[in-house]
Specification:
With 412 residues, the chain is α/β, with parallel strands linked by helices. It is built from 18 helices and eleven strands. It folds into two domains: 225 residues, Spore Coat Polysaccharide Biosynthesis Protein SpsA, Chain A, CATH 3.90.550; 84 residues, no CATH class. The radius of gyration is 21 Å and the shape is globular. The two termini are 27 Å apart.
Length: 412
């Protein structure tokens, strides 16, 4: 019998995180699902033992035939999924107990939805490696659910108008990561490009295929998961260590690290995540034949995002780095002009208007007795703090209880 949902968990050498991800799935109130653990570890024994120990016929592990790149492992896992809707989650992500129930309540009423996304909260460690004790951090906000315009969303993401860390709900849109793709959409993507995930940032850049090939996409507007904030992040390791970065690139691409640097929109700043995301977007637009969409890439905004991330990541004079790399760099000469242009664009953008409107409505809600959306959103903002937890399962229960208190979310 075909399960309603497939949850694919790509993993590599992190069984201590995987354990909690699996426990969170066993706690789901909705039961018609399968779990596919795609194990890409050096030694498959731990993952196999862990999945077998769950003693749950819905859980199975598929072992990669050799060590694969991150994107190949993601694609390998999805190729074994049978559900009507398929999601991938990280081994460091736990779903809240009512997550699948919430998704089912939406897609079962409207099967034409191809993509459905949610936000994620975080679990930070007090002393990672020595204790599971930590704290639960909610999103600062939740939002009205919405079916969004796919073309406009794609143009917005290619504009790089807003920092990734400021995208809020729009960060998750279009992704199979922190979301589900319908079986029909997955087959559509495979028919067009042969794979669901692209090379370097498969978790994030899956959104581009989602925007291009889905017919209807739905943003739930609330958090349905909790993600570990960890030093063992693959992305962070690759950006903070040159050797790790070279290793990751050599596993993921059919070109040398040096050639990759040359092809970045702004070489040589591979440490800036947005620069690498833009690289993936460009490659994906070429792959799909949608090269005309590259005209929406705003390189002025992109250059600012790259510089912001470089400045935030490294305690160096990034202007000197640019001058040493390219003394005639337009990137530096036009920096002030670009900052002013970007600030003006943000001020008059739809994104900013939405923020202003929401803040005004919540300000009014503070002064009137109300149980409506904006009064409840204000309560969420007031609860935006780090809740101490003895372990991740305590955090999971806190998140579940927290969101259950808001009638507007219809989360149980």
């Amino acid at each position: 019998m075909v399960p309603y949902f497939s949850v694919v968990i790509p993993t590599r050498n992190r069984p201590h995180f995987l354990k909690y991800a699996l426990i969170s799935l066993q706690k789901q109130s909705f039961e018609d699902f399968e779990v596919i653990v795609s194990d890409n570890s050096d030694d498959h024994q731990e993952a196999v033992t862990l999945v077998q120990g769950m003693n749950d016929p819905r859980f199975k592990v598929v072992c990669t035939p050799s060590v694969l790149s991150m994107s190949d492992n993601f694609n390998y896992g999805v190729s074994h999924a049978n559900g009507r809707y398929v999601s991938t989650i990280a081994d460091k992500t736990l779903l809240l107990p009512g997550a699948l129930e919430k998704v089912y309540s939406i897609v079962s009423k409207d099967p034409s939805i191809d993509v459905i996304n949610w936000l994620s909260d975080w679990y930070g460690f007090k002393d990672e490696g020595n204790s599971w004790e930590g704290f639960y951090m909610t999103q600062q906000d939740f939002y009205e659910p919405v079916i969004y315009d796919l073309e406009e969303e794609l143009k917005f993401r290619l504009s790089f108008l807003i920092k990734r860390t400021e995208l809020k709900r729009r960060y998750f849109r279009g992704q199979i990561y922190y979301g589900f793709y319908s079986r029909e959409l997955i087959e559509r993507i495979k028919q067009k490009v042969g794979k669901v995930f692209h090379d370097l940032n498969p978790d994030h850049t899956s959104l581009l295929f989602g925007f291009l090939y889905s017919k209807k996409s739905y943003d739930i507007g609330m958090s349905l998961s909790m993600m570990f904030v960890t030093k063992l992040s693959n992305g962070n390791k690759g950006q903070e260590s040159l050797e790790e970065g070279k290793k990751y690139i050599s596993q993921s691409l059919d070109c040398s690290f040096e050639k990759f640097l040359e092809n970045l929109p702004f070489p040589p700043f591979y440490q800036a995540i947005t620069n690498v995301i833009a690289y993936d977007f460009i490659q994906m637009l070429d792959l799909t034949g949608h090269t005309h969409l590259k005209k929406y890439i705003n390189y002025d905004n992109l250059s600012l995002r790259v510089l912001e991330e470089m400045q935030g990541r490294f305690p160096v004079d990034y202007k000197k780095v640019i001058l040493d790399t390219d003394p005639d760099s337009d990137l530096l000469k036009n920096l002030l002009i670009k900052k002013v242009q970007n600030a003006i664009s943000k001020t008059f953008s739809e994104f900013n208007r939405e923020e202003i409107r929401g803040n005004l409505l919540m300000s009014f809600a503070k002064y009137f007795q109300s149980t409506g959306l904006y009064a409840q959103k204000q309560r969420q903002r007031n609860a935006y703090f780090a809740q101490p937890c003895s372990d991740p399962l305590t955090g999971l229960e806190y998140g579940h209880t927290h969101y259950s208190q808001f009638p507007i979310l219809n989360y149980k």
